[in-house]
Design goal:
Mean pLDDT: 88
Strand content: 15-25%
CATH architecture: 3-Layer(aba) Sandwich
Distance between the termini: 46 Å
Number of domains: 1
CATH class: Alpha Beta
Radius of gyration: 20 Å
Low-confidence stretches: none
Number of helices: 4
Structural class: alpha/beta
Shape: globular
Oligomer: single chain
Number of strands: 7
CATH topology: Alpha/beta knot
Largest sheet: 7 strands, parallel
CATH superfamily: SPOUT methyltransferase, trefoil knot domain
Order of helices and strands: EHEHEEEEHEH
C-alpha cells in the first residue's frame, strides 16, 4: 500500500480505549498514533495494548492543538458524527492522512474540527465506542487503498483460479 496514515484522538480519557487504538493501529500498520490533551492513566494503556505496539508504532502526545505537528503534506481528516460530514464508505482517503477522533462522550472541539481538511462520519444510528470508530476508519482505509480484488456482484468472495504451479524442470538437451 502506498502512502501513510496516523490516527489519534483529542481529549481521550479512557486508557483502555487508547490501548485498543494502539493495538489496532499496529495491526493495520499505521505509521503513528497521537493524542491531544489526553487525560488517561498511562500504566493502564498496556492492559489493552497486548501487542506492545509502542515498540512498533510511535505515539505522539501533545498537550494542545498548538503543539500538534503532523508531517508535511499530511491531510488531517476529522471523524465526527456531523450532518456536514461525508459518509465514510463514500470518502476517498488521501494518500497521506491523519485521522482525528473526538473524545469518549464528546465531539472534536470546534478548533480541532476547523483544522481538518475533511470531515467523515461512520454511517451508524448513534455514536460507537472511540476505539471501535478508529478500527472502522482504519479498516475502510485498508480496504479502499490496499489493492484488493473488487467485490463480486453476487454473494461470496472473488472467484479466481489458483495460480499455476511453478515446477522446476531440468532443461532438456536437443
Amino acid at each position: 500500500m502506498r502512502g501513510y496514515f496516523g490516527i489519534g484522538s483529542e481529549r481521550i480519557s479512557k486508557a483502555m480505549n487508547l490501548g485498543a487504538v494502539l493495538r489496532t493501529a499496529h495491526a493495520f500498520d499505521a505509521s503513528f498514533v497521537f493524542t491531544v490533551n489526553a487525560h488517561h492513566n498511562a500504566r493502564e494503556v498496556n492492559l489493552a495494548d497486548t501487542s506492545k505496539s509502542g515498540t512498533h508504532v510511535p505515539l505522539y502526545e501533545w498537550d494542545s492543538l498548538e503543539e500538534m505537528r503532523l508531517p508535511k503534506g499530511c491531510v488531517l481528516v476529522g471523524v465526527e458524527l456531523d450532518e456536514t460530514a461525508v459518509d465514510l464508505p463514500s470518502f476517498r482517503h488521501p494518500l497521506n492522512a491523519a485521522y482525528f477522533l473526538g473524545p469518549e462522550k464528546g465531539s472534536l472541539s470546534p478548533e480541532a474540527a476547523a483544522l481538518c481538511t475533511h470531515l467523515v462520519k461512520i454511517p451508524t444510528r448513534f455514536c460507537v465506542n472511540l476505539s471501535v470508530a478508529a478500527a472502522l476508519v482504519m479498516y475502510d482505509r485498508t480496504v479502499s487503498m490496499g489493492g484488493y480484488a473488487p467485490r463480486p456482484v453476487s454473494a461470496g468472495g472473488p472467484v479466481m483460479a489458483p495460480p499455476p504451479h511453478a515446477e522446476w524442470r531440468k532443461p532438456r538437451r536437443r
